[in-house]
Design a protein that fits this description.
With 299 residues, the protein is of the alpha+beta class. It is built from 5 helices and 12 strands. Strands 1-2-4-5-6-3-9-12-11-10-8-7 form a 12-stranded antiparallel sheet, with helices on one face.
Length: 299
């Protein structure tokens, strides 16, 4: 297996300290804080380790503080309820004695029921599209040097954008985005692992959809962005080593916050998961268009 992907699987696996307490490490992906998708993915992994015979169907998380990449994260799981069909878990992620994330996850005993779904958008398939790292290499001369590592490092996923990518645009665009995603290598046939990986990757690209109509790019010094919450619903079994279309849109930005929604479709058109996220979008000085001195954001 590809070393970067294998490392991510290990990262999401966690170390069990007690029955309901787990410890996880972090990886620096080029941002000044722990990647939010990592914390959500690890929190779901911790919750799943306390449930038997049921699969995650939804999670809701709040980001409380920026995570420290250089310190371990402790995950405390509260076994809130085990009913006849559903189980609920509450997870607190802790660093330096303070919570950085609260997560609630619900698990269900598999059963059949009524079915319908939204239609898959009609967009170009992944064949012939360039991976994000290839696009970045083509535009390094126009990208601030502090972003080079974030955009060109080897990743555990392929990202193929349907729409043209411009990392430093002022053009006002429709608040929609479509990205084909899959892991860089085949995965073990472990449904819980595939759900954890989808949870991890669902935090990529999403909030950026909310700034597209405003002619902004995330590397501007006057723009502060930070995820506030994240929700995810699993509708069907997920295969992360097969192409998934991540279709995103932003229905609203107001009050220094932006809302973004996403849907994951298989190449055959099956809707396997939906997500939503609200984030801080704050303009510090609308006349200041200098690049950030440091990447990242704060609330």
């Amino acid at each position: 297996m590809h070393a970067v992907l294998e490392d991510l699987i290990t990262l999401l696996g966690l170390e069990r300290i007690e029955d309901n307490i787990f410890r996880g490490d972090s990886r620096d992906i080029g941002s000044p804080q722990v990647f939010g998708g990592q914390v959500i993915g690890q929190a779901l992994s911790a919750a799943q380790r306390t449930v038997e015979g049921r699969v995650a169907h939804s999670l809701h998380a709040y980001f409380l503080r920026r995570g420290d990449v250089n310190a371990p994260i402790i995950y405390e799981v509260d076994r809130a309820r085990d009913g006849g069909s559903f189980s609920n878990r509450r997870v607190v992620a802790i660093q330096h004695g303070r919570p950085i994330l609260n997560l609630a996850a619900s698990f269900q005993r598999p059963e059949a029921g009524l079915e319908h779904q939204a239609d898959m958008p009609e967009v170009a398939g992944p064949e012939g599209l360039k991976d994000l790292t290839e696009l970045a290499k083509d535009m390094l001369a126009h990208i601030p040097s502090k972003m080079h590592r974030y955009l060109t490092d080897k990743r555990p996923f392929e990202f193929r954008h349907v729409e043209p990518v411009n990392f430093d645009t002022r053009e006002k665009l429709r608040p929609t985005k479509h990205v084909w995603i899959r892991t860089v290598d085949k995965l073990p046939d472990d449904p819980a692992l595939h759900r954890n990986l989808l949870t991890y990757v669902s935090d990529y690209e999403l909030l950026g959809t909310a700034i597209l109509p405003h002619g902004l790019s995330f590397n501007r010094s006057n723009l502060i962005m930070a995820s506030l919450d994240h929700a995810l619903w699993f509708h069907q079994e997920v295969k992360m080593d097969e192409w998934l279309l991540y279709a995103m849109d932003s229905p609203n930005s107001s009050g220094a916050r932006g809302l973004a929604r996403g849907q994951f479709f298989t190449a055959a058109g099956m809707l396997v998961a939906s997500t939503a996220q609200e984030g801080l979008i704050r303009l510090v000085d609308a006349d200041d268009w200098r690049p950030r001195s440091k990447p990242g954001s704060q609330k």
